Structure to design on (1059 residues):
């Protein structure tokens, strides 16, 4: 159980991108060349140089526009599937520290990227094509180790992002959920037993799909899931079904 | 703002209209979010569903340029349904005042008020006067039934603004409109407060000033002025633009909102007399009656010992304006520049090649100059105008001087925010290369010009040579500047039994004198730097006893650290707060506690000693009827200058009857505008994005911001895109009578076609943060499209409602 957790209250996010820029700033990641392709979402996806982005989604629900802003980055799972897979390939390639941060090291260059990426229910791992090293959000564990709040969580102006001890964050999530349910009865917290980044969705009917990625599961991961149930990971059930059908 | 940022958390209903606060004032959303956590309702009204709308409980679309129709409809709704706060209205506003019987509303005269001269496009305001009794005091009808009282005139003015008609004009669905009226009307109840957060979406129209006036009337009807969580709150678009307007870097005012003297005012006495309002009512504080104390103190700050009673305190050294002061405003500046009337131009911390309406006109105008000085952090489309698109550098004689300047973090000084808080800041680091703070550039300029005058003489050297300018050289002592803005006693002076030695900082503007014994660079800021120290530098997080987030010892607010102005309207006649829980001031034990009261006189129930609550008005009452405006004492809906419909559905007067019309005949070939022209059938507006700021001079040089928003785009409804064969991501060309820009289409559900009367009208929008200079593939300014036509009172350009066409590029 990680010591720290982050709360992501989607109902309060205004997509100001302070978090996206703060992450680039702290990690000294350069900007990537982007084009306007008909969306506010830029960069279009996570990459070895982009550890977090806001994903934008517009929908019309019962005649009203719903515009969701979804901050995407590593959830820092309590039992990270990426680490499980990597441990079998290169021990020490992916580490997990007491704060809860799951860390990709340089040794990931020797891991099978496709396998590691496919293991992630949230489709987070990315690779530097030049070096083969994998990159993702570090939970700013260097800042945490020095008594500071992770960069993105610090700069959020509306309070959509919070940082704290795991129990405190879970309590905040519960309180927020109770309040949200008054106006949004379907509101829910996502995967709170599995991850350190606790998402509160006020409109899960339109937002839940943003918490997962459509992806093809890997064989190795599917086999693992047969012997080790993955709990609420919806993908797990699908994988089991997939393997049972003899696919992949 | 009449209130301030942290006060927003106290609101029960927040209306964000003419603003996209979540986008453009992201930190303000902390306070909106807090209010919502406490149960506040958020309403977003915008032509397009924005980032603000995504957080709102209620969203309604509105066609750009029809805000007075919507707001006038709300006034009508409040009156018809008796939802206004009658007690407050009677006590604090001029609703009871009797107006000249000859006055006619726009309802009675088909769109204009009495006194209109169509040839001059101006009003004779004789009938806009109040009736007075034998003692010169305004006659009032406390029952508000007299047909000539302001309240009845208000009712008559807005009874045409029915929900059906408003919906036909604005395109706002009637059910949403009524829901919003109902929700906002709830703030009229005692103990409830509604706030309005607005910005350029309301001000940048030919009726901009009147948009704000309509909201001010609503706030008065609902008892929302002077209370916590209420007010009329402009979200300023730049961190220190409030400071710049307070120090009056505008043609028509001098520091502290004093008036620029006119050539028709030959002496200081005439100037002061004409600038100082008078009242016959002993219960009216008429605070502007102190005007000469402030104007004399200002001249003493300018000219020091050289300003004496004998020489009119140096009044003759001030530049004088013609009576029609609008000829010096922004749009007219570039008009004159285009005609070759200027030899030089300081484009100081601005980018008119992208920020000014009808940007092509501005760019061509710059080419007529002999020289330009551009003070900025980065090169821009203005500093480099001569090599912009369509320019032929070999033919341009303009010599451009680029002076690099410091950014705000590289210098010490104060910044005044929208909430009137002056917050002192410190130098974080040195500027690179030769970059200098603006103060040092101005200081250097002054010293060199002075030397030239000393050496060579000149036509009129005194205004330069006699300036009292001793802030240091080459370094500027900003504390000295700040202290002079506050003001000193120039000589020993006894005030109220206490003697102040020469050189003592003046405690507040109540101590400023008209006899030349005090100086103050800005009477509004008198109290900001006193013998107690630099008030703007205070950082105490201790709240006031009323616990409403005033933080009276965090920095300093004008006037005299009053955080919520007009706060004497937050109490009843006995000085007891309407809202017991969120009180602002309270009369207790013979004095006011809480916020600094808006005048320390006892409550209204003490008839002998009291003063009316709205002390800046000559009659002490807030203006529902506002005779000071050029285009009417009540706001009236007019269509934007470039509009999509043949007729104004509200009246026979299509456009604002008093705006100055620029045209190719009287001005330049680029001053063209077309309404109901099949070539430009789509309504357009411009707006900002959180990722970029203003014209993007700073943010387009910031890679992480450019990464998030790399190129010019145009938002188009799915319906319009379908009609035009435009797909999401297609490159398009948006064109108007004045220019065109390339933009990538963002096809979205967030714009929907409007049903205006029986027509379908489409609207699109573009951000205005791009410019041709950088990045090379970023696109150019949306202001190439906008018209050079301005508001009737301020001439602020109408960049928020104009007509365009959009086609897929290559078609």
């Amino acid at each position: 159980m990680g010591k720290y957790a982050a709360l992501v209250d989607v109902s309060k996010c205004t997509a100001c991108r302070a978090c996206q820029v703060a992450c680039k700033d702290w990690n000294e990641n350069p900007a990537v060349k982007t084009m306007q392709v008909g969306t506010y979402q830029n960069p279009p996806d996570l990459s070895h140089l982009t550890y977090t982005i806001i994903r934008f989604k517009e929908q019309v629900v019962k005649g009203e526009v719903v515009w969701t802003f979804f901050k995407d980055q590593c959830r820092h799972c309590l039992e990270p599937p990426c680490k499980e897979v990597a441990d079998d390939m290169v021990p020490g390639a992916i580490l997990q520290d007491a704060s809860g941060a799951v860390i990709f090291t340089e040794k990931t260059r020797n891991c099978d990227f496709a396998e590691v990426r496919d293991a992630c229910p949230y489709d987070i791992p990315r690779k530097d094509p030049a070096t083969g090293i994998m990159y993702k959000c570090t939970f700013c564990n260097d800042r945490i180790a020095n008594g500071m709040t992770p960069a993105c969580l610090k700069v959020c102006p509306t309070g959509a992002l919070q940082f704290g001890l795991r129990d405190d964050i879970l309590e905040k999530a519960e309180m927020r959920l109770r309040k949200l349910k008054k106006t949004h009865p379907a509101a829910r917290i996502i995967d709170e037993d599995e991850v350190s980044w606790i998402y509160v969705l006020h409109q899960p009917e339109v937002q839940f799909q943003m918490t997962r990625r459509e992806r093809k599961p890997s064989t190795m991961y599917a086999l693992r899931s047969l012997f080790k149930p993955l709990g609420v990971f919806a993908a797990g059930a699908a994988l089991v079904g997939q393997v049972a059908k003899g696919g992949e | 703002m009449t209130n301030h940022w942290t006060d927003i958390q106290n609101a029960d209903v927040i209306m964000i209209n003419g603003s996209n606060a979540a986008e453009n004032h992201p930190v303000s959303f902390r306070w909106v979010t807090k209010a919502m956590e406490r149960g506040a309702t958020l309403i977003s009204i915008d032509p397009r569903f924005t980032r603000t709308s995504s957080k709102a409980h209620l969203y309604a679309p509105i066609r750009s340029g029809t805000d007075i129709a919507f707001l006038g409809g709300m006034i009508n709704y409040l009156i018809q349904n008796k939802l206004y706060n009658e007690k407050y209205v009677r006590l604090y506003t001029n609703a009871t005042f009797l107006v000249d019987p000859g006055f006619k509303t726009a309802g009675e005269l088909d769109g204009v008020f009495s006194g209109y001269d169509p040839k001059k496009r101006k009003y004779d305001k004789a009938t806009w006067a109040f009736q007075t009794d034998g003692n010169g005091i305004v006659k009032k009808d406390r029952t508000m039934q007299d047909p000539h009282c302001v309240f009845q005139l208000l009712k008559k003015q807005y009874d045409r603004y029915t929900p059906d008609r408003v919906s036909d004009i604005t395109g706002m669905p009637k059910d949403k409109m009524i829901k919003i009226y109902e929700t906002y009307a709830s703030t009229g109840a005692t103990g409830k407060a509604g706030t309005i957060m607005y910005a350029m979406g309301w001000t940048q129209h030919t009726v901009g000033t009147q948009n704000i006036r309509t909201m001010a009337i609503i706030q008065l009807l609902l008892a929302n002025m002077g209370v916590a969580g209420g007010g009329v709150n402009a979200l300023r678009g730049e961190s220190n633009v409030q400071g710049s307007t307070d120090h009056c870097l505008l043609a028509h005012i001098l520091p502290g909102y004093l008036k620029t003297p006119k050539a028709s005012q030959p002496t200081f006495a005439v100037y002061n007399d004409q600038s100082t309002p008078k009242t016959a009512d002993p219960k009216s504080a008429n605070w502007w009656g102190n005007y000469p104390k402030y104007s004399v103190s200002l001249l003493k700050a300018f000219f020091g010992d050289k300003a004496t009673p004998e020489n009119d305190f140096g009044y003759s050294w001030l530049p004088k304006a013609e009576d029609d002061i609008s000829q010096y405003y922004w749009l007219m500046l570039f008009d004159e520049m285009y005609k070759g009337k200027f030899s030089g131009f300081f484009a100081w911390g601005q980018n008119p090649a992208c920020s000014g309406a009808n940007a092509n006109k501005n760019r061509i105008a710059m080419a007529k100059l002999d020289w330009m000085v551009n003070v900025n952090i980065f090169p821009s489309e203005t500093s480099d105008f001569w090599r912009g698109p369509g320019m032929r550098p070999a033919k341009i004689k303009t010599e451009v001087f680029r002076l690099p300047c410091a950014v705000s973090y590289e210098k010490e000084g104060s910044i005044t925010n929208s909430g009137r808080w002056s917050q002192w800041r410190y130098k974080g680091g040195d500027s690179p290369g030769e970059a200098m703070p603006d103060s040092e550039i101005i200081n250097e300029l002054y010293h060199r010009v002075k030397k030239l005058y000393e050496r060579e003489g000149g036509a009129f050297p005194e205004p330069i040579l006699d300036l009292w300018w001793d802030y240091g050289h080459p370094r500027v002592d900003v504390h000295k500047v700040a202290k002079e803005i506050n003001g000193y006693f120039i000589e020993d002076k006894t005030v109220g039994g206490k003697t102040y030695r020469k050189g003592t900082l003046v405690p507040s503007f109540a101590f400023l004198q008209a006899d030349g014994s005090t100086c103050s660079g800005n009477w509004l800021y008198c109290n900001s730097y006193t013998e107690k120290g630099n008030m703007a530098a205070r950082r105490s997080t201790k709240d006031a006893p009323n616990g409403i987030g005033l933080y009276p010892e965090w920095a300093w607010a004008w006037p005299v650290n009053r955080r919520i102005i007009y706060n004497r309207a937050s109490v009843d006649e006995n000085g007891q707060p309407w809202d017991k829980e969120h009180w602002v001031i309270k009369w207790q034990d013979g004095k006011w506690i809480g916020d600094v009261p808006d005048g320390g006189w006892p409550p209204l129930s003490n008839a002998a000693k009291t003063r009316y609550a709205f002390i800046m008005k000559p009659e002490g009452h807030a203006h529902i009827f506002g005779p000071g405006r050029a285009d009417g004492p009540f706001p009236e809906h007019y269509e934007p200058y470039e509009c999509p419909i043949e007729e104004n559905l509200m009246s026979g007067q299509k456009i604002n009857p008093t705006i100055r019309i620029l045209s190719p005949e009287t001005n330049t070939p680029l001053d063209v505008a077309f309404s109901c022209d099949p070539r430009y059938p789509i309504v357009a507006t411009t707006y900002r994005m959180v990722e970029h700021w203003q014209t993007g001079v700073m943010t387009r040089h910031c890679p992480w911001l450019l990464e998030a928003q790399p190129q010019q785009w145009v938002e188009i409804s799915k319906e319009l895109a379908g009609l035009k064969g435009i797909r999401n991501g297609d490159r398009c060309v948006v064109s108007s009578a004045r220019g065109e820009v390339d933009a990538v289409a963002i096809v979205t559900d967030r714009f929907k076609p409007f049903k205006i009367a029986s027509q379908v009208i489409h609207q699109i929008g573009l951000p205005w943060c791009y410019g041709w200079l950088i990045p090379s593939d970023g696109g150019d300014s949306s202001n190439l499209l906008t018209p050079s036509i301005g508001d009737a009172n301020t001439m602020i350009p109408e960049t928020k409602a104009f007509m365009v066409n959009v086609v897929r590029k290559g078609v």
Notes: Residues 487 and 520 of chain B are 4 Å apart (CA to CA). Chain B has a mean pLDDT of 97. The first helix of chain B runs from residue 21 to 24. Chain B touches chain A at residues 22-23, 26-27, 29-30, 33, 37, 49, 51-55, 59, 690-691, 703-713, 727-730, 744-750 (CB under 8 Å).
